[in-house]
Design goal:
With about 190 residues, the chain is α+β, with helices and mostly antiparallel strands. It has helices spanning about 1-20, 30-35, 140-145, 150-160, 175-185, and strands at about 20-25, 45-50, 60, 65-70, 75-80, 85-90, 90-95, 105-110, 120-125, 135, 170, 175. A seven-stranded antiparallel β-sheet has the order 1-5-6-7-8-9-10. A three-stranded antiparallel β-sheet has the order 2-3-4, with no helix packed on it. A hairpin with a 7-residue loop joins strand 9 and strand 10. It is globular, with a radius of gyration of 19 Å.
């Protein structure tokens, strides 16, 4: 039993250690501009520790001569070494699905259920703009955020039967269906 527990902890440690930050987006504007802070280069090497294993509320940036501690709530997010962008919002970490689109979509993968029968559930969220609050992805929340865009709210009612369909991808246009409809709603007739 101890060996199994040790193996599970070891695999978890390896998995979380392998995830490295390429750089940090200090603000929403930095994210929009594609400007990473503390991006490690050969001339200026940084080591960024995210402290995901114990879910700490800060990030540590180490240089050759100093150590900088940043609150996760004080930065927009980070880009990992695989190119995936993560955003911090209200003590939570979200995976950003579409960094180049207008309405930003996020997901969280959380373990749900009793300990013996835990499964991973995926929850979807959105933000109106990069610096806007993150809200659960629902037709009602979208209609509330975009109430001044009547055409878009009509598209929501026409093209989506339920909230689950909001995260569908449009492979013909290489973007999320939601953003395609938003794009169409802002074009003049």
């Amino acid at each position: 039993m101890r060996l199994i527990l040790f193996n599970i902890l070891f695999i978890l440690f390896i998995k979380l250690s392998a995830q490295r930050a390429l750089g940090i987006y200090a603000t929403a504007n930095d994210f929009i501009q594609g400007r990473l802070s503390y991006e490690s280069t050969k001339q200026n090497p940084f080591r960024i520790k995210l402290h995901e294993l114990f879910n700490k509320s800060y990030i540590t940036v180490k240089t050759k001569t100093s150590r900088i501690v940043l609150s996760k709530d004080s930065v927009f997010g980070y880009k990992d070494n695989q190119g995936v962008v993560y955003r911090y919002f209200k003590h939570q970490k979200y995976i950003l699905l579409n960094p180049s689109e207008e309405i930003l979509l996020y997901k969280q993968e959380l373990k749900v259920g009793e300990a013996k029968y835990r499964q991973v559930a995926v929850f979807y969220f959105f933000s109106e703009k990069a610096g806007s609050p993150i809200l659960p992805l629902s037709i009602l929340n979208l209609e509330t955020c975009f109430q001044n865009n009547k055409r878009f709210t009509e598209f929501l009612e026409i093209y989506f039967k339920n909230d689950l369909e909001l995260s569908e991808y449009d492979y013909n246009h290489n973007m999320y269906k939601l953003n395609r409809l938003f794009e169409l709603s802002t074009k003049s007739e």
